[in-house]
Give the backbone structure.
Amino acid sequence: MTSLPPAFMVDDTRLRLFRNGDEAVARMISAIEEAKSEVLLEMYWIGDDSVGRSVRQALADAQARGAKVYVIYDAFGSFAINETWWQPLLRIGGKIHEYHALWPPARIRRMEHFERRDHRKILVVDDAQAFVGGLNLALPWLSEARGGAGWRDDVLEVSGPVVSNIRALFYQVWSRETLTPRPRDVARSFQHQDKRVWITASQWRHVRSVRREYLHRIAHAKSRVAIANSYFVPDRRVRQALRLACQRGANVRVMVPLRSDLPFVQWASEALFEGLLRDGIQIYQLGGTMLHSKTAII
């Protein structure tokens, strides 16, 4: 890779924002290729395509070098792959878990597993470097010049103490789903919220809810709320928080895709436009490519 977006420091955390799928995928693969002790990948959608196969090869190479490789992939999001697809990694000791398998029936513990999915996209390398964002490891995120669809998304590369919290989130899921104990050096508690860079998460029966954080921040917004969301179907409480922010004088803008990859979600989103506009919320639709970001600046 020739050049990278600039990195910046916030207290003791080093951050780098990728807004280009080609750069983000290349950087994530490069991080795996440089791994020395551990690679943790939790991903909703891993494609049976050039991107997925490149990631699989990098993971297998890391395992062969002596790094411990653990992968969680969602059965629904990654429906095109299975345990057979992972054999190059499994044969040399890599650990793979299919989250809430859809088949065979013997592997389905409860019917609720059909609807409860793992939508995370995180990569943690050597407890020192992490990637979080909306990008899945699949071909649509590459540029059209590289055979993809150029989907618009954001990925944040993180280095610093907060990486241990992201690692802990991975092992929470891994331990619960595989019924194996987490390593002894995994963080047991999260950094306090008085830090300027910290992690929140949405998961079943977990108090650190992303939705709760959105509501809190919007409720205290003074000047502006800018949201980019690929599947914007806010519930009543979120709509009320946005409306009250407008009434306080905040400039509230929401950007959604002009054409979604999920038409039924787009119909549900557009059904809310009239009421949102009436409340003073500005709605913008991004054309030219699929907007897949889920970001907010408040």
